[in-house]
Amino acid sequence: MSEYQEKHTVSRLIGAPPGYVGYEEGGLLTDAIRKTPHCVLLLDEIEKAHPDIYNVLLQIMDYAVLTDNNGKKADFRNVILIMTSNAGAREVGRVLIGFDSRNIDRSAMTKEVERIFSPEFRNRLDDIVVFNHINEDMALLIAKKVINQFKEKLKAKNIDLKVTARCYKWIAQKGLSSVYGAREILRFVQDKIKTYFVDEVLFGELSKGGTAVIDVADGEIKITNRTKGDD
Q1: Which residues belong to any copy of the Clp ATPase C-terminal domain (predicted)?
Q2: What is the pLDDT of residues 81-114, one digit of tens each?
Q3: How far is CA 138 from the centre of its chain?
Q4: Which of 31, 54, 184, 194 would staple 177 via disulfide (CB 3.0–4.6 Å)?
Q5: CA distance linking residue 89 with residue 96, whole number of Å
């Protein structure tokens, strides 16, 4: 929600006020809900938005209705509202004494949430869920997803990418970070794998297609190319 940091940007959700450009177009949020009344509405990093947005959300959570600047109502009765926040992210590294290191200091994070969000706003939430660090199993799933997406892109270039099981596991272990979360895995795959294929696909052995096998040896990524002529 960082695009709604300024006070005037919040009006985009319900439409510009009279006299402003786009007044007759309606609001981004109200129009979207009218088109898709049964949906899950996800607001990412809600704490980055201007505080005025909470007034809009309070109206939604209280009455399940939001009226745009044209007087048209959007019905939120069948909308599931989910908001994510990095509130308390600084506390992620703190470990509760006597507990598993994978568990974070929930009480400290809750205090941070209470500091950022007003009591009337928190009182209208059904629940506040605090997530632990990602573990190795989750990191492995993320690594596989990221690489599988890259595989699909290479297929369009007539390149078959194969990754060994131990390489997946190694990437998950190296990219696992309790501080940076999944983004560290994305950076790791970008640096160690994707960067390699830029020159190979454009000017190298794989410029006309082929097969690439990714493995790990001596603590480093090893990529072996096999062109169509080698088959």
Answers
A1: 134-223
A2: 999 988 776 665 554 444 444 455 677 777 888 8
A3: 15
A4: 184
A5: 15
